[in-house]
Amino acid sequence: MQITFDQVSHIYAKGTPFERVALHNISLTIPSGSFVGIIGHTGSGKSTLIQHLNGLLMPSSGQITLGDAVITPKRRLPHAQRRDIGLVFQYPEHQLFEETVAKDVAFGPLNFDLPTEMVEARVKESLEIVGLDYATIKDRSPFHLSGGQMRRVALAGVLAMQPKVLVLDEPTAGLDPAGRVTILEGIYRIHREQNLTTLLVTHSMEEAARYADYLLVMAQGQVAMQGKPEEVFMQVDRLRELSLDVPETVALVSQMNHLLPDKASLPSSLYREEELIAHLLERLSVPKEG
Amino acid sequence: MNEDNLLALRDVSYTYEGEDGQRVPVLQGVDLTIQKGSFVSVLGHNGSGKSTMAKLMNALLLPEGGTVLISGMDTKDGEMLWEIRRHVGMVFQNPDNQIVGATVEDDVAFGLENMGVDPKEMRDRIDGALVSVGMESYLQAQPHRLSGGQKQRVAIAGIMAMRPSVIILDEATAMLDPQGRMEVLNLARQLNRDEGLTIINITHFPEEAIYSDKVIVMNAGEVLMEGKPSEVFNEVDRLKQVELDVPFAVRLRHALHSKGIDLPFVLHQEELVEHVCKLLLTK
Predict the structure, then answer these.
(1) b or e along B217-227 (b: 16 or more beta carbons within 10 Å of the residue's beta carbon)?
(2) Do residues A34 and A196 make contact, with C-beta atoms less than 8 angstroms apart?
(3) Which of A27, A101, A116, B229 has its CA 20 to 30 A from that of B84?
(4) Mean of the per-residue pLDDT values for chain A?
(5) Number of domains in chain B
(6) Domain containing B29: what range?
(7) How close A290 comes to chain B (CA, Å)?
(8) At residue A290, does pLDDT exceed 50?
(9) What's the CATH number where B88 sits?
(10) pTM to 2 decimal places
(11) A173: chain B residues, CB-CB within 8 Å
(12) Domain at A1-84+163-229: CATH architecture
């Protein structure tokens, strides 16, 4: 589903002393099927931006197009289309509330009046997508699971709605490295298999470098940079100016190129770790004889 | 007990009660000593027992088997409870769950009021604590308006005001953005260096452990490895077996070295850059 923002602004508490412009005249296009990494500091407008996608916030001015639906300051996203947008909040496990895992995952689809058998099939499928075994986990209390498992149950609850757009607000915050990889690999698999349009808000440049095919860098309510990862990461100085990190791979390549003469320098497109290693191995390995 | 050992765990075990009443062991036979003035990092998965260990260190939990000693005080000795808690301060993961005051100075004063410290001395201690965490200009600020990193620094000031000997950071950086994480980590290192405070940093980020005096790796309720960062991170394959990550430079060097590239062990990115460039230029 293609997503377009056309001169969208959002002002919190308009007309009060606490008035604050959180989004300032944003225009952007996200093609259907892309995996977009959204980067920026706390307070840069990332969360405000994504809350516009399922009608939680309305633009103060401008318009948003989601597929065929148009959202304006006066026009909400129609109810039926909200299920197309799956929004996973920060710390989604805080929103678990049912007695059993199966009931919790079923809550959304049941609210949209789907037949019971269909809901059950979806619950089973969604739990399996996030790497949880339906039979062993369905009757357990969500509150007795580990943090990583709780988060996966919450994600399954969103997937059970079979959204066309998946929006994730820092889905790995607070998880250990193994938990982070499980969640992200699961998301990436669903993204490809179901041809979703995915927006990932993250503080981790490494996550953005690994999964995204397009990056949006937010700063002070505006899109400060956008483009393919290699285009964005190439502008190391601009990112530092925004006091954002660059991925470790990019920092390494940039430090090395500083020391190497031009003819020996490394291509700055090497921002994925595997590709950097492969490149270095090729250049450093002793050529086979013959 | 050795004078330098501020904290000691002797054959400590602990068990939680599971969902259906069965007993789940979380720590078994843990032996550890932590030296006064050292900076120790504890790595391990969720469920490896590291947070339970932290809670045993300031008597929030009591060991089922074995002994936990803080400056020679046994945590099982109820009379020593408040003295132990004053000695060992804890900062938790969620910055919003540990702020109680309506202003920054109220929050820092909370512990002192509980101890019945004289108001004049309280003033000095609050000011001193806020200076030590670099938050002195936020005396009257409302904590909920601060960033995550600033909130954690206020939490640390609350501990500093109690004049502790150890601060345990229990994944205190996990919920912060990269900037907040640097703020808290730099502060911990500064308090360790300048005020001689012992720091125990429990973390998921292997990068945070590079500058420690000692790294402890927990796995399945036991101490899997213990040593200097260069010793622990040199065992990449062993850490991988338990699905633990290593710092970026270590990982990259390992990937090249295991394919026959002649590179010495490195912890820091700068060293790796130098070695790899040298190799590239001699090719």
Answers:
(1) bbbebbbbbbe
(2) no
(3) B229
(4) 91
(5) 1
(6) 5-246
(7) 18
(8) no
(9) 3.40.50.300
(10) 0.85
(11) 174-175
(12) 3-Layer(aba) Sandwich (3.40)
